[in-house]
Description:
The complex is a heterodimer of chains A (473) and B (92).
Chain A: H1 3-34, E1 39-41, E2 44-49, E3 59-64, H2 70-79, E4 82-87, E5 95-100, H3 106-114, E6 119-124, H4 132-139, H5 142-145, H6 178-184, E7 187-197, E8 221-223, E9 227-229, E10 235-236, H7 250-259, E11 274-281, E12 288-290, H8 291-306, E13 311-316, E14 318-319, H9 325-336, E15 340-344, E16 367-373, E17 392-395, E18 399-403, E19 407-411, H10 414-431, H11 437-446, E20 449-450, E21 462-463, H12 466-469
Parallel strand pairs in A: 7-11, 7-13, 10-11, 13-15, 15-16, 16-17
Antiparallel strand pairs in A: 1-2, 3-5, 3-6, 4-5, 8-9, 18-19, 20-21
Chain B: H1 5-20, E1 28-37, E2 49-52, E3 56-64, E4 70-76, E5 80-85, E6 88-91
Antiparallel strand pairs in B: 1-3, 3-4, 4-5, 5-6
Amino acid sequence: MNRQNFLGHLALALSLILVAAFAGQLRRWEKNFSEHRTQRECGSKDKVRRQTATDSTRTVLVKFRDNQSASDIEDTIAAHHDQVTDKIEALDDRLVAIYDLDNIKAESVASEYNSLPGVEYAEVNQEIDLAPNEATQDFFNDDQLNELQVPNDPQFAEQWGLQNTGQRGGQEAADIHALDAWKQTKGDRRVIVAVLDSGVDYTHSDLVGNMWTRPDNLTEYFDNELGYANDRHGFNAVDNLADPMDENGHGTHCAGIIGAEGDNHEGIAGVNWQVQIMPLKFIGPSGSGSTKDAIEAINYVIERKRAGVNVRIISASWGSRANSKALEDVIRRAGEEGILFVAAAGNSSVNTDTTPHYPSSYDLPNVLSVAATDRNDQLTSFSNYGPKSVQIAAPGADVLSTWLGNAFEEHSGTSMAAPMVSGVAALIIAAEPNISMTDLRARLLDSADKLPQLKGKVASGGRLNAARAVGAN
Amino acid sequence: MKLNSEEATSRARADLGRRLGVAESDIVTVSVSDTVFPDAALGAYLEDEMAADVLTNGWTITLSGPDKAPVEYRGSANQLRLFNFKGENYQV
């Protein structure tokens, strides 16, 4: 091949590669929209926005002229109240895909941009039909679809604690960075989290797949006083019926925060997409329970741990000012078995260094006391705090989760913040099954996002960061 | 059965009448106000009681008997409590 022929072939080959790459990119845009995925915002790899299944019809490709700087482009798009969903690096970021936020027809948006002097051309995004097999095999697969780690759960967009896009007046990224964490792990069903609460509606369709069930090779629970109890679905200390079905809703809510099934086209996503929730019921229908019943339930967990059940965390979204030495002792014993005890700091707006709230104020190596932040990363007005006695903060206002009757509800309280921490603890264990309880606790605190507004309020000075906790960034 | 503010107030009036040994007609409803309580015990813990740390919507019901001293009840859809009556909390 002579030099001229070689250059010609090279140019042709490069052109074909570019066309193929561009077609693939277009297809990915379309697919990401049509599959109800979110798109990464221009210039911010960590932030995503939720868009609807019809969004591909509202996407416009705009090519800006060479004399337009990056800030010119951003200003123009912002002035038109549009959102960048992608940009083409090969064209110096001057070809951008934008999404109109005002529900205007894409044709009108394209026409508007075409009238601007800084725009070379604007066109409506067109679907490029490829043979299904070719499209599936060559341009997107499950890995690509899950690249952003956004679950398909329809109410995920309301879960600001996991991914805060600024929805409902919140602050972007004032969340636990769940999407980045999920690049590392989405949980593991070998990890068991005990929810010590009002029981759990273990038939809830968004929880049922992540509920613990006593294995067939594990005999029924025997207690010297209670006798045998059929603990198929967990433990009930309230009426000794051993059916931990929730009659209040609070325990079901906490369970969903930890481990509502993720990416199952239903409801919400838990911090863990996969995990096992062990319901422990000691709170009755009114929302309260006795110290004795809490102790019975913790004792159950310890016994099951000793029998080989991999319970690593007890999540406790309750408390009072009653200081029980017996409760403290049994929690200490749980710690000796390697069980982390995550407790709500309480909602009385007080400093628990001077006005304790138990069990969160027990000064034990396995206890983590959790305060609540809002969607602007501020300590909530109701949350207890304590530079010595509260260790960390986590989202705890307007938290959407599972509820009785296959429902979903928003609730607020340190009750909601504690299971966020329990959930991230479970994620860490999923990634590092052999981590010790002591290291687990330290990891949660060391990886928190230090925030000035939490300095002097919680010992770590930070809000939970799932991504850093699992080593994802 | 879920309570509403009217039912909660009615039950509170009957309860206070019994406790004071007077007719319910002698009980005056001073005020009923919507309240967000800090927990499921409505901030009125019983001895050795642990409660869910969730904000709970309800009502503060202030009544008085013949001696005119205010008595506070706290109610929600799930329950009614008498708050700090002679130094004690009660579940009604």
